[in-house]
Amino acid sequence: MRPDFLRVLLLSSACVLSACPAPTPAPSEPDAGTPPTGEVAPSSRNNLRFKNPEQLTAHFAAALSLPPEQVCNELGLYPCTTYVHSVALGGVEPYGVGLYEPLTSTGVTTPIAIDRVALAACVQRVSLDLATPGETSVFKGLELDAQGRLANREGAPVRDAITSLYQRVLLRDPSETEVGALSRLATEIESKGTQTPGRDWMIASCFAVLSSAESVFF
Q1: Which of 119, 146, 182, 199 is the most exposed place for a label (fewest CB within 10 A)?
Q2: What is the pLDDT of residues 36-86, one digit of tens each?
Q3: Highest mean pLDDT among 47-61, 124-138, 204-218
């Protein structure tokens, strides 16, 4: 992957995941997520759990309509989740290092491993969708112009692709803020001078949703 696109991807996805810079509400303004009464109902579960390697593989594969063995592989041979990054993703390794129980907390390499797996899965999905447009799974009906840009980033196909991503990955519709953030991401990527801005936008959008906390926890 080109270094210039990787820098754009990491910076842009960070903006997307944080809903892009927004003005801090004045102290007198209520938080947007707080009901008018000021009371917040407690969670009925209050027990978020990090998906283990098998769950993460199954989730990414199902969301992007990929065979589990195509989600991410080291050197095209070794599964990233259940072999290469198994311990970092909360798995065990009884034969190699004698680790029979998962670590009690995630390590510093866990986010890197998640990002790597999500990025690999998104690249695979976008490559398939572009190679076989008649059999597209996520990015349906998206047209690219002569410069490889989205022909109409404000059009229905782009909104439909964003909605499809959220429905597949998070099992919900995106908010208008989320749709707007991913739509603006296309403009930011184009401004960086990449040679394939439309393709890069598809990968970055997929990556932003697939690697989000809402996706990797249950």
Answers
A1: 146
A2: 555 656 656 677 888 999 999 999 999 999 999 999 999 889 999 988 888
A3: 204-218
